[in-house]
Amino acid sequence: MQNYVVSELGSGERVITERVESVRSVSLGFWIGAGSRDETDGNAGISHFIEHLLFKGTRAYSAQQIAEIFDGLGGELNAATSREHTMVYARVPDERLETALDVMADMVFAPAFVEVDQEREVVLEEIAMYEDTPQDLVHDLFSEAVFADEPLGRPVIGSADVISSLADEGIAAYHRSMYVGGNVVVAAAGNLEHERLLELIGQVERRHGVGGARPARPLLVAPPPPDVRFARKDTEQYHVCVGAPGISRSDRRRFAASILDAILGGSASSRLFQEIREKRGMAYAVYSFSSQYTDTGLVGVYVGTREENLDACLAICAEQIGDLAAGNVRADELERAKENVKGRIMLSMESTSNRMSRLGKSLITDTELLTFERIIAELDAVQADAVAELAALLLAPSVSRPRASARTRRGSVRPSRA
């Protein structure tokens, strides 16, 4: 059973912890409700850019001092940005929690925003690297095809044109508006005391004057009509994603969606992996995927294959989706998928980092935090007809003809391989 404690401070900042007495470490994360969907066309990529700049120094610590402190702790420090949040996280020995919290809070609430132009070049190199990785690039093109001009359709990393033009004052203003008490969650898991962490965070808040209400986030009213995106890359393979809008992270059908993913392409025994890779050898990488957001989601399949295999691979994907949608979910694959999902959840919880991430993500996204026992019960309760119904609803071919368009990340129009 998972035992966690939640507190809300006067600043609006929320704190959630889980004590794990069997370890000698603490995983700590600052979760900020600032992601690419909170941006405009004019500052697209700024959330990710700020994530980089947090490591370049603060009012109290230089970039080198931050690196040396965590190296001296024997700890890990990193960050990540998604479409709906930014996270700065660390794992340190339990007796060094206070030091880690002090440095991380300074990074989050008091970045100096120095060396902006140098780090801008780093991000531009990251964008270039990303664009040279078609198996990653295709997922952003897929999001754009699903969500069109909605913020969820833009890449988290941003574009070279926008990143090159972001001004220092705009970066600082965005940070001031988003990194406020009501928009921050501190999550921790490991050998720690909740009350002691609250005391330490209170000291940090007073030092930095943390406060402010959580900004409103516009939600998606309705997904745009189906569309197609292409980008030409000089590669040996075609990298293809086919899918549709999915369900939100609070949708009760998310348990059935997890089982559907495991059956279709989310495991080594899944239909797509077996039919396309194992039996026919037509792809090295083939899988299904899903992403869940506050109010919507994505669901789809990916395959990377040579041109001569592409038609056959897509035909197999359509055939297997159609078979599931028609209700042909075998009892053995349903049971195996349930055990697969349950096993992966339980194994992941042996990591304090995963436990911290589960706590923080649930709170920053206002998602109900279920016990492991409840999750297992919900998965066990999924029936074959629920999986088939979801496959038919989300992935079965649409009667509407999608609008076709072609573009590359740089804006010019060309035929495509992604």
In short:
The chain has 418 residues and is an alpha+beta fold.
Question: Which helices and strands, and how do they pair?
Answer:
Layout lengths: L3 E5 L5 E6 L5 E8 L13 H8 L9 H11 L2 E6 L4 E8 L3 H13 L6 H16 L2 H14 L12 H6 L2 H11 L5 E7 L3 H15 L18 E2 L9 E8 L8 H11 L6 H8 L6 E8 L4 E9 L1 H19 L5 H18 L3 H13 L7 H9 L3 H11 L8 E2 L14
Parallel strand pairs: 2-6, 7-11
Antiparallel strand pairs: 1-2, 3-5, 3-6, 4-5, 8-10, 9-10
Helix pairs in contact: 3-8, 9-12, 9-15, 10-11, 11-15, 12-14
Written description of the protein model:
The longest helix has 19 residues, at 307-325. This protein has 2 domains: 4-208, Cytochrome Bc1 Complex, Chain A, domain 1, CATH 3.30.830; 227-404, 2-Layer Sandwich (Cytochrome Bc1 Complex, Chain A, domain 1), CATH 3.30.830.10. The protein has helices at residues 46-53, 63-73, 97-109, 116-131, 134-147, 160-165, 168-178, 194-208, 254-264, 271-278, 307-325, 331-348, 352-364, 372-380, 384-394, and strands at residues 4-8, 14-19, 25-32, 76-81, 86-93, 184-190, 227-228, 238-245, 285-292, 297-305, 403-404. 44% of the residues lie in helices and 17% in strands. The strands form 3 sheets. A 6-stranded mixed sheet has the order 1-2-6-3-5-4, sandwiched between helices. Residues 399-418 have low confidence and may be disordered. It is an alpha+beta fold and 418 residues long. It is built from 15 helices and 11 strands.
